[in-house]
Design a protein that fits this description.
The protein has helices spanning 2-17, 21-46, 50-73, 88-113, 120-137, 141-160, 167-213. The chain is mainly α. The protein has one domain. Helix 1 runs antiparallel to helix 4 (88-113), helix 2 (21-46) packs parallel to helix 6 (141-160) and helix 3 packs parallel to helix 7.
């Protein structure tokens, strides 16, 4: 399981720090696939069959649908993200600190105070913190939606980490979380697409006005 969580954090880093938006969105695919693998593995280890259904839904929505929708939004705009509020080297350094030190610190903290919680807790909390930091530093709309996506994945894992002791409650919480997340991200992507369409219309009108003046 440790290798799976490290892979999730690695592709999270690529997703958050890539300047090319298309590459950043494509990095969400392996990021989400490893989340699916983790959910299936947790379900198998803890013998919770309902997690298999959640894993299938994660595969469809997180690994397939969300990247496709985001790539569609990028179709009519530049693929280089808007300059963030902090420099790229500093952003990379902070990301490495948050993802590596944060994950191992939480793992140590968990072993002392939350021994009953499975290892997805550390990964989930790290994703949540990193996604929040990413959101605060980014100015690009696509990157901000990706940040929300990472935050939601962190919440997803935090809920899963409670499964051994509250299976029924967790199943209901996961289902509710999943539905809310889907509706929220679909709404964001629709709004994002509307913004890009308006930008294209504005650019088209400006170019026409400049031509008419000439």
């Amino acid at each position: 399981m440790e290798i799976i969580y490290i892979a999730i954090l690695f592709f999270t880093f690529l997703t958050g720090e890539a300047k090319n938006l298309k590459f950043s969105v494509l990095s969400l695919v392996p990021h989400s696939l490893f989340i699916v693998i983790a959910v299936f593995t947790i379900g198998y280890i803890n013998e919770i069959s309902s997690l298999y259904l959640i894993g299938i839904l994660d595969l469809v929505v997180r690994a397939i649908l969300m990247p496709i929708l985001l790539l569609k939004c990028l179709k009519n705009r530049l693929e280089i993200e808007t300059k963030p509020s902090i420099s790229h080297p500093l952003s990379i350094a902070l990301s490495i600190v948050v993802l590596s030190v944060g994950y191992h610190f939480v793992e140590i903290f968990k072993s002392f105070y939350l021994p009953y919680v499975i290892s997805s807790f550390s990964c989930g909390l790290t994703l949540f913190i990193y996604g929040f930091c990413l959101f605060m530093s980014k100015r690009d709309i696509v990157k901000m939606i990706i940040s929300f996506f990472i935050i939601e994945n962190g919440i997803h894992f935090l809920i899963i980490s409670m499964i051994p002791h509250m299976p029924k409650f967790i199943e209901i919480s996961l289902t509710f979380n999943f539905i809310i997340a889907i509706l929220f991200f679909v709404y964001l992507i629709i709004r994002l697409n509307e913004v890009f369409v308006k930008e294209e219309i504005k650019k088209f009108k400006e170019s026409n006005s400049q031509r008419s003046q000439l």
